[in-house]
Amino acid sequence: MSTTLFDKIWNKHIVEQIDAKQIILYIDKHFIHEVTSPQAFDGLRQRNVKVFNTSRTVGTADHNVPTKNQHLPIQDPLSKKQVNQLSENCKEFGVELFDLHHPNQGIVHVIGPELGMTRPGMTIVCGDSHTSTHGAFGSIAFGIGTSEVEQVLASQCVLQVKPKQMRIKINGQLQRGVSAKDLILYVIAKLGVGGATGHFVEYAGEAIESLSMEGRMTVCNMSIEMGARGGLIAPDQTTFNYLKDKVQPEGIRFDESLTQWKKLTTDESAIFDIEYEFDAADIAPMVTYGTNPGMGIKINEAIPSTSESSNASVDKSLNYMGFNKGKILEGMPIDYVFIGSCTNARIEDLREVAQYIKGKQKAENVEVFVVPGSQLVAKQAKKEGLDKILASAGFELRQAGCSACLGMNEDKIPAGKYCVSTSNRNFEGRQGPGARTILASPLTAAAAAIAGKIVDVRKELN
Fold it and tell me: Which of 118, 205, 223, 342 could be joined to 134 by an S-S link, Cβ 3.0–4.6 Å?
């Protein structure tokens, strides 16, 4: 019987079928951070239960950490409490933790892959919606709620209902200046924020296969922004090359694993519940104009003014953003640029930005901060001299953390200001009360920082 990649992994991890819909799923790796784990640990205490398998759980501090002066005590009381509580919980229950002063600390979805903990064929969960990032390696990775975090801590399993399956093929090759971030923003704009609800999405096609691992992580990261349970990409030589030089924990032997990883593909005649195909040549640099990731347009397009976009929700969103239907964002002045988040804070992202801005200077009207996704990314950036290039252009390189992606720390965009951001969400107040977020790729963000306005980066490339 022909099966999908998802089926092959899912079926292998079923512990028990509870009823017609629910199953108990075994989890290979459980990531935790300071925001969604405290209540779960409290639940274990109340029931006098230990962590079932400490070797399969790892924690890091990321959401609440400051990105300046990390050697000093955290100033914000709530952030300090959550970060300290994570340290106390991990110490009490024997869970490995990459705290604020650990050389491996960073955003949970950045450190997993870079440390070799994320591998093909695994089931991976975290109390964070963007756990879907790890699906780029051919794994089933998804976010879970706090009660489910407790389930996994207590049993290394979680109760689940099998999702439907969707395949999205991107045929052909991307234009110069168009990135993985543009690709996924384009798909979300086409399908809408509810277009993949209830589905796990497998991405395929020449454009996907040509992406680097960093690009694939960006695509899978934002799968949930169209309602998907998660996204995944079949592992191939690009995947294997990325993993070969990574730390191999838990006694994993690369050569032995490779034989199994190569079997992780969707059979040719496998059937999906729904399939979509898009032409990579039609994808352009993308920007968002509203308050959800589905409100995206090509850089040279106008904000839709058709009857389809005429509803109270759209009107409210445009009012919040200060935009009108029919407006073209290209050429619009901006105030801030944020380059970071679990979507675009890897070394490849920083290299791309540095290459573009080298020898240039940011516009006077724009404040720019670049936040690496991990301590290792920050270390590598300095090793390659990227920090000097950023500084020369007037870009501020900060320390590792989630930063202005979600405003749960000190990095917030002031009310009413426009920020071109490489993060994954543009909800009202996401980057701070009243902040106006325009999602874009690192390259588009860098170009906007230099120009002081939104520009089509394809026109700026030499």
Answer: 118
